[in-house]
Amino acid sequence: MWKPLTVIAILCAGGAAAFRYMNTEDAKLEKELLTRAKARVTGLEEHQQKFKDSITEETAAAEATNDEADSVHSQFKTAESKRMTMDTEKTTIQRQIDTKQAELDALKVQLAEIGDLPELARQVQRITVETNTVQQEIAIAKENFKNLVATREATTKTIAVNKEIADMQEAEQMKSINASVTQNFSDWGFVTISAGANQRVNAGTKLDVVRGDEVVGQVQVTNLHPNSAVCDVLTGRDQIAAGDRLQVSEESKWDPAAASVATGATPAGAAATAGGEAAPAPAPAPAPAGADDPFGLDPSPSTPAPSDDDPFGLGGDSTPSAPDTDDPFGLN
Question: What pLDDT, on the 0 to 100 scale, is given for residue 232?
Fold first, then answer.
C-alpha cells in the first residue's frame, strides 16, 4: 500500500518539481518578457518624446516659415511697387530720350546747313581779330580827330582874337586900357604913356585923361613902342600931368556891332532901327561846306552817317542816338 503511495508521492513530487521547473521557466520567460516590455515601453516613451520634440520643432519651423512667408510676401509687394515705379520712370526716360533724339536730329540738320564748324570757327576768329584791329584803328582815329578838333578850336579862337585885334586896329578903337601919363611935353603938344604895342594899344585911339573923377584932357595915340606910346594932345595941354590915369574915350570904344555894320557884315546882335527899337537880325545864309572849317573836320555834319556803315555791329543799340558833334564815327 505504501508503495503506491510512495509512487504517487514520488510522482507528485516529480510533478511538483516539474511544475515548479515549468513555473520557474515561465517566470523567467515572463520576467524576460516583462523586461522586454519595460524596455519597449521605455523605447516607446523615448520615441514618443522624440516625436513630441519633433512636432515642437516642426511647429516652430512652421511658425518661422510663416513669418518668413509673410516677410517674403511683404518683400514681394515692395518689389512689385518698385517695379511699377521703375516702369513709370522707364516710360518718362524713354520720352526724354525721344525728345533729345528729336533735338539731336534737328541739331544735325542745322549743322548740315551751317557747314564745316572748324572752318566757321576759323572765320569767326579771323573776323574777331579784324574787328579788334578795326576797333583799335577807330579808337586811334577818334583820338586823332579829337586832337584835331581841339587844335581847330584853339586855332579858331586865336583867329577870332587876332581878327578882333586887327578890326580894332583898323577901326582905331580899344576895349579898355590900364595906363597912365608918364610925361607931358606941353610945349610940343604931346605926352608919353606907360602902355604900348605889347599891351595892345592901337594907334589912332582917343584916350581921356582922368584925374580923380574929372576928365582933364584928351589925347590920341600916334606912335607905338613895345611898352610905351606917344600921344598927341587934343585938349587940356596945360592941365595934363604925369600920373594922370587914362581911359578909352567913348568915341574910340570898341563896338563889334558897329564894326560889323561898317564892314558890311551881319552884326552879332540885333541891329538898331531908325526908331531906336531893336529889330531881329536876319537869319544867316547857310555857309558852303567847309567854309568855316579850314581843316575839313566839321564835327557837326548836317546829315548823320547811316547806321549801315558799321559792318561789324559795333554801333551799340540799334536805335540811332543823337549825333555827337565831336564824333564823326558815331562810336560814343
Answer: 96
Contact 281, 247 (CB under 8 A): no
Query: Can you tell me the distance from the alpha carbon of 259 to that of 173, in angstroms, rounded to the nearest whole number?
Result: 10
Tally Cβ neighbours within 10 Å of residue 249: 19
pLDDT of residue 281: 44
pLDDT in tens, 130-175: 999 999 999 999 999 989 899 988 988 889 888 888 888 888 889 8
Task: Output the pTM of the full model.
Answer: 0.38
Kind of pairing, strands 214-224 and 271-272?
unpaired
Find the helix or strand (DSSP H, E) in which 134 lies.
helix 117-171
Partners of residue 57 on adjacent β-strands: none
- Asked whether the predicted pLDDT for residue 283 surpasses 60, the reply is no
Over its C-alpha atoms, the chain yields an Rg (Å, rounded) of: 70
Classify domain 174-257 by CATH architecture: Beta Barrel (2.40)
Whether 168 and 204 have beta carbons less than 8 Å apart is answered as no
Residue reference for cell 569767326: 124
The CA-atom distances, in angstroms, between 28 and each of 16, 24, 32 are 18, 6, 6
What are the residue boundaries of the structural domains of the chain, listed by start?
12-68, 75-111, 116-171, 174-257
Summarize the confidence of residues 44-53 as an average pLDDT: 81
| CB atoms near residue 159 (< 10 Å) | 11
**158 forms bridges with which residues in the sheet?**
none
Q: What are the angstrom distances between the C-alpha of 257 and each of 128, 165, 263, 268?
A: 57, 15, 10, 6
pLDDT band at 242 (very low <50, low <70, confident <90, very high): very high
HSE-CB for 296 with a 13 A CA cutoff? 0
Query: Residue 135's closest CA among 317, 316, 324?
Result: 316
- Which three cell numbers mark 35? 523586461
Assess whether pLDDT exceeds 90 at residue 244. Answer: yes
Q: What amino acid is encoded at 106 in this protein?
A: A
